[in-house]
Each structure stands twice: as structure tokens, then as C-alpha cells.
Write a structure and sequence with these properties.
The chain has eleven helices and no strands. By secondary structure, the chain is an all-alpha fold. α3 runs antiparallel to α4. The relative contact order is 0.18.
Length: 291
């Protein structure tokens, strides 16, 4: 996906934003798929067709039917129930990991743009070093020390997100610091801290909002990959990635066991990417005027 254009905070308050969003195909499709993901996770807290933790070997590898809408897995568990509960792990990892990256990365990027000089250089070199350790490699290192688990997966993905947010925030903030109204604020005696929170952060918020959706999609993919390798969500908690891992040995006997979690991951990531593309277009004042 291409890097998002720099939108202005003004675009967030355009009166016709919601009217325009309803006519933006990518935004609508992405919003619907994202809402379905959230609805599936929310529904799993109050209802599932069957218990996702209850095994019944007598009913293993059943095809889709009225009793089991998407069939059963190798342990006789209902696949539809596993998918619903598995959405929780994806959202949990996405929210916390992206939150870590957003909070720490944005703070570092704002500091680099405000202080410049050796501070900016040190922060940027630190982000370069962090980017040398992708999420999966970081999870493997954490697992070797602390053991496998969803907490270590969240920490690894969160650390992976920090340099991305720091770089985007720093680049966007530098552009705002060169504007005339910031120079006027400095001439009036405002300090770097006040300018950052009163002028810089509000004007880069739209960029960060778009990036959140993109990083959320990447976090879901990373969680699925880590769970597939046995480094993420641990049994008995359902996970889409582990469902794929368990299904790979049954590809010839029950290929649908891999199709359903694969489709869930693909639709969740597609929805968030389309939502990010739509927000980028809608929050960019130049594209907003064109529409």
C-alpha cells in the first residue's frame, strides 16, 4: 500500500465528511468488513453456536451442516465458534500493539521534530536499529527468554510499530513546523511544548488515524503468523493463525479447515486496508475538494 498523503486536521471537521464517505466505495467496504470483525468478537462474548473449548472426538472433521455451520475440526470443536472467539485475539493484539507503537512512536517523532539537532539524529538512528528486528524475529527472541504467549507477541508487534509511527510523525511534524502560523506562534513567545500540542499534533492527527488502520491490519497478520508458528496465542484460546497450523496436516481430508480461518484473516486485513485507503482520500483536503 502506498504511503498516505498528508491530510489536514481541517478535513476532520468538514461538514460533508460523512456524506462524502457514503459515496466512497473503498471506505464503505472497508468500514463494513471492519465492523463485521468487531461484531464477531463482541458477539463471541455473549454467544457462540458451541463451546470453542469443548472437544468431541466422535464429531471430528464433520462437514458443514445445520448443527455445525462450518463443520468441526480434528478435535470435534465447532469451527464457527472458533472463528468468532479467534476474532478476540486479533483485535486484542491489534489494539494493544498498535497502541504501544502509536503512543511511544508519536512521542518520539514529536520530540525529534521539536528539538531537531542531535536529539532528532539519535531518535532516527534508534528507529533504524529497531527496524532491523521484525515482529516475528523479536517474538522468537522474547520466546527464547520468557516463553511463548500472547503477551510476548503483543510486545514484539508493539516494538515493531514504534519506529514506523516515529518516522511518520517526525516527517509530518517537520512539515508543520515550517508553516507560517507556527513561526507566528514562536514569535509570540510560545514554547516548543505548547506549539507541539496546540498546532503540530492536531494537524498531523489525520495522518496518524490513517496509519493506525494500516498498522492494525499488519498486526493481525503478524499475530496470525506468530500463532501459526506456535509463538502467539496459546491453547486452549482459539486463534486464526493456530487454526491454520492445525489444518495443514488435514489439507486432503478436510481442506475447508484451512479455508475458513484463511478467509477470516484475508477479509479482516482487506477491510482495514480499504478503510485506511478511504480515510486517506477523505481526510486529504485536496482529494476532499475533488470529490
Amino acid at each position: 500500500m502506498s504511503s498516505p498523503a498528508m491530510p489536514s486536521a481541517v478535513a476532520l471537521t468538514v461538514p460533508g465528511f460523512w456524506r462524502r464517505s457514503l459515496h466512497h466505495r473503498s471506505f464503505v467496504i472497508g468500514a463494513v468488513l471492519t465492523l463485521l470483525l468487531i461484531a464477531a468478537a463482541a458477539l463471541s462474548w455473549v454467544w457462540t453456536p458451541w463451546s470453542p473449548y469443548e472437544m468431541n472426538l466422535a464429531d471430528k472433521l464433520k462437514p458443514p451442516s445445520a448443527a455445525h455451520w462450518l463443520g468441526t475440526d480434528t478435535f470435534g470443536r465447532d469451527v464457527a465458534s472458533l472463528l468468532l472467539v479467534g476474532a478476540r485475539a486479533s483485535i486484542l493484539v491489534g489494539v494493544i500493539a498498535v497502541g504501544i507503537g502509536l503512543t511511544l512512536g508519536t512521542a518520539l517523532g514529536l520530540l525529534a521534530a521539536a528539538r531537531r539537532g542531535w536529539v532528532e539524529e539519535a531518535i532516527m538512528r534508534l528507529t533504524d536499529f529497531s527496524m532491523a528486528f521484525p515482529a516475528i524475529l523479536s517474538a522468537i527472541m522474547l520466546t527464547a527468554v520468557f516463553g511463548a504467549g500472547i503477551v510476548n507477541a503483543i510486545i514484539a508487534i508493539g516494538i515493531y510499530n514504534i519506529p514506523t509511527f516515529a518516522r511518520i510523525t517526525r516527517a509530518s511534524a517537520n512539515a508543520i513546523w515550517s508553516r507560517e502560523y507556527v513561526a507566528a506562534a514562536r514569535a509570540c513567545g510560545k514554547g516548543a511544548f505548547a506549539i507541539t500540542f496546540q498546532h503540530v499534533l492536531p494537524n498531523i492527527s489525520a495522518v496518524l488515524i490513517v496509519q493506525i488502520t494500516i498498522r492494525f491490519a499488519i498486526a493481525i497478520l503478524a499475530e496470525a503468523a506468530l500463532s501459526y508458528l506456535g509463538l502467539g496465542t496459546q491453547p486452549p484460546q482459539p486463534s486464526w493463525g493456530r487454526m491454520l497450523s492445525e489444518a495443514q496436516t488435514m489439507m486432503w481430508q478436510a481442506p475447508l479447515l484451512a479455508v475458513f480461518p484463511g478467509m477470516a484473516i484475508a477479509l479482516a486485513v482487506l477491510g482495514l486496508n480499504l478503510l485506511g485507503d478511504g480515510l486517506r482520500d477523505l481526510l486529504d483536503p485536496r482529494l476532499a475538494r475533488a470529490r
